[in-house]
TrEMBL record, chain A:
GO cellular component, one term: plasma membrane
Keyword Cell membrane (UniProt): yes
Phylogenetic classification of the source organism: Bacteria, Pseudomonadati, Pseudomonadota, Betaproteobacteria, Burkholderiales
Gene Ontology MF term list: branched-chain amino acid transmembrane transporter activity
Alphabetical keyword list: Cell membrane, Membrane, Transmembrane, Transmembrane helix
Origin species: Rubrivivax gelatinosus (strain NBRC 100245 / IL144)
Location relative to the cell: Cell membrane
Spans traversing the lipid bilayer: 6-27, 34-62, 82-101, 108-128, 156-176, 206-231, 243-266, 278-299
Principal location: membrane
Keyword Transmembrane helix assigned: yes
Protein name: Putative ABC transporter permease protein
A Pfam family of this chain: BPD_transp_2
UniProtKB/TrEMBL annotation, chain B:
One GO MF term attached to the UniProt entry: transmembrane transporter activity
Pfam families recorded: BPD_transp_2
Protein's organism: Rubrivivax gelatinosus (strain NBRC 100245 / IL144)
UniProt main location, coarse: membrane
Protein's name according to its UniProt entry: Putative ABC transporter permease protein
A single Gene Ontology CC term: plasma membrane
Alphabetical keyword list: Amino-acid transport, Cell membrane, Membrane, Transmembrane, Transmembrane helix, Transport
Length: 319, 294
């Protein structure tokens, strides 16, 4: 089977499993949570994998939306769909401000600046009067979608999450294949050349950054609706690190990579949480080290490289 | 006597605390600058190494009855040795790839260190007593100065400027700097560059551990103490500009003081003032205060 067909087959199979998941006896809250983080990782990958920008503070946008959607739906009585839209826009607005500052530095400095500004967002959520401080924002109702469909039913909620996930996934494929996406890749490969070709590189990077933070926000907003709360751990820098790990582990710069990475990490955390205690952090750290030292292309990247090698070998043997 | 409505005592007290914090910022950002300047690695594990220094001090007192002065020598040696192991087994594989991987690898290492210590000692803070010789306080007439705090400031400034002197003004320092510019040429002169690089990382790690021991009597020792500090130190580094060692020292000290004074005048902002300053500096000087524009 060639690569194209194998990929299409893989996606169809993945989608089928996801569609049937609630009927297969898989715990729906787990899949919903994993899907939210998969959206988050896809958003992050749009920036790191396709534009070459390592943001080390993506939890800030996830949390900005998680908190604002939670507050709007719970305290202001907004409907869930309006809450999702508002959360996404607020995350994008925070992203715009951070982006305007951070785009001024490159590479490793960009990572440090985004990390530091995200920490500032963390302290705002720690101290602001509406966030519940250490306790977080609790008891967010799921409400009724468009005023009719009750999301209190896990299955209804599940299909909403899945629909959003598929839409985001398709949108990212569309963005990457658009002329805009091609310019982003050119910037990733050789920024000075992109500048010399006359592209307003900073504006492209900023737009990619805001897009990525908006989608990260959508993931956070959706997570609040699913679980009914937003807490400081949504804003903590360790979550920013986890989303890097999800992307790296699955394979950055690939479409399926971040999704596989997110399911792996969330699955591992769920599985290990009550079995090994503090060792979860150690294991996650160990995976990080192993990825960077031995496994830099991630699951999908390594698989693609393996198939490429085999194809070449076969061509050599046949010719 | 009052300054802008704040009692002089409280003002000077916070100024003093700010200087103490500033000394830690200076020592840590100096270590980061040395490691980044010579190895090209952004050492996210720096906070974890600082935390390990404090734990080595605490453990050597609890388990072996070794006093503060012994810990001051022991901790940098132990953590420095760990640094050599890390450099020789892991970091050396990353010199030829994007510096982003160095950041991610050391982030993973920091998680491992944190998780292991949390499993061993829990999250509650440990206390380390102030050494006998430095207990008490001196009355300066206008304020009461705790002896230990004065010692921290003097000791870390001595270490910082000593490091600066070694790197900028001695033959060893010129080898180090030449080694980053052109390793093969320096190697041809008979200098063992890989050993020099490993020792440099060890020295940076040792500096972090030394800061950890100095901090042990004035803070709660917890597995998270380094994680919370490292991000402020990153902001300090961005503000100072990473190229300059003197820049790292001065920026660290000044930001500690600024943070201390913010606590006096507007306590709510004291956690974020460093990040606000970072944002402003980046708008005006993207390369940082002491950095060179590329």
């Amino acid at each position: 089977m060639d690569r194209e067909r194998l990929a299409r087959f893989g996606w169809a199979l993945g989608l089928l499993v996801l569609l049937l998941a609630p009927w297969l006896g898989i715990y729906p809250i787990f899949v919903m949570k994993a899907l939210c983080f998969a959206i988050f990782a896809c958003a992050f990958n749009l920036l790191l994998g396709y534009t070459g920008l390592l943001s080390f503070g993506h939890a800030a946008y996830f949390a900005a939306a998680a908190y604002s959607t939670g507050w709007l739906v719970r305290s202001a009585g907004w409907s869930p769909e309006l809450g999702l839209v508002a959360g996404t826009l607020i995350a994008a607005a925070v992203g715009l401000v951070v982006g305007l500052i951070a785009i001024r530095r490159q590479g490793i400095y960009f990572a440090m600046v985004t990390l530091a500004l995200a920490q500032m967002v963390y302290f705002v959520f720690l101290q602001a009067p509406f966030t519940g401080g250490e306790d977080g924002l609790q008891g967010v109702p799921r409400g009724h979608l468009f005023g009719v469909l009750s999301l209190a039913d896990d299955r209804v909620m599940y299909y909403l999450v899945l629909a959003v996930f598929v839409a985001v996934f398709a949108a990212i494929i569309r963005i990457v294949h658009s002329p805009f996406g091609q310019v982003l890749k050119a910037i990733r490969e050789n920024e000075p050349r992109a500048v010399s070709l006359g592209y307003a590189v900073d504006r492209y990077k900023l737009l990619a950054f805001v897009l990525s933070t908006a989608i990260a926000g959508l993931a956070g907003a959706l997570k609040t609706l699913v679980l009914g709360f937003a807490t400081l751990s949504d804003a903590h820098w360790s979550l920013s690190g986890e989303v890097v790990l999800m992307t790296l582990l699955g394979g950055m710069g690939t479409f399926a990579g971040p999704v596989i990475g997110a399911f792996t990490i969330i699955g591992l955390q769920n599985f290990l949480a009550d079995r090994v205690g503090s060792w979860v952090t150690v294991i996650i750290g160990g995976i990080f080290v192993a990825c960077v030292v031995a496994f830099r292309r991630g699951f999908v990247g390594e698989a693609l490289a393996w198939m490429q090698r085999r194809k070449l070998e076969r061509a050599a043997a046949g010719g | 006597m009052e300054i802008l409505g704040i009692p002089l005592q409280a003002f000077l007290g916070q100024l003093m605390l700010g200087l103490v914090n500033g000394s830690f910022y200076a020592m840590l950002s100096l270590g980061l600058a040395v490691i980044f300047g010579l190895l090209g690695i952004v050492n996210f594990a720096h906070g974890a190494l600082y935390m390990l220094g404090a734990y080595v001090a605490w453990l050597s007192l609890e388990k072996f009855g070794l006093n503060y002065w012994a810990a001051l020598v022991l901790a940098p040696l132990v953590v420095g040795a760990l640094g050599i192991v890390i450099e020789r087994t892991l970091l050396k594989r990353l010199y030829k790839v994007d510096p982003i991987y160095g950041l991610l690898l050391t982030f993973g290492l920091a998680l491992i260190a944190e998780g292991v210590l949390r499993d061993q000692f829990g999250v509650s803070g440990q206390q380390y007593p102030v050494p006998e010789a430095l207990q008490g306080a001196t009355d300066l007439g206008f304020m009461i100065l705790p002896n230990y705090r004065a010692w921290v400031i003097v000791a870390s400034l001595t270490v910082c400027f000593g490091t600066w002197f070694v790197i900028e003004r001695t033959r060893l320092g010129s080898y180090l700097r030449a080694g980053t510019e052109n390793p093969s040429l320096v190697q041809a002169f008979g200098v063992n560059v890989p050993a020099m690089v490993a020792l440099t990382y060890a020295a940076g790690a040792g500096l972090a551990a030394l800061a950890g021991v100095l901090a042990a009597p004035v803070i709660q020792i917890t597995p998270l103490m380094g994680a919370n500090l490292i991000i402020v130190v990153f902001a300090v580094v961005v503000i100072g500009g990473m190229g300059s060692i003197l820049g790292a020292i001065l920026t660290g000290l000044v930001l500690g003081v600024v943070e201390g004074l913010t606590k006096v005048f507007y306590p709510e902002a004291s956690n974020i003032v460093v990040f606000v300053i970072m944002a402003i500096v980046l708008m005006l000087r993207p390369a940082g205060l002491f950095g060179k524009e590329k």
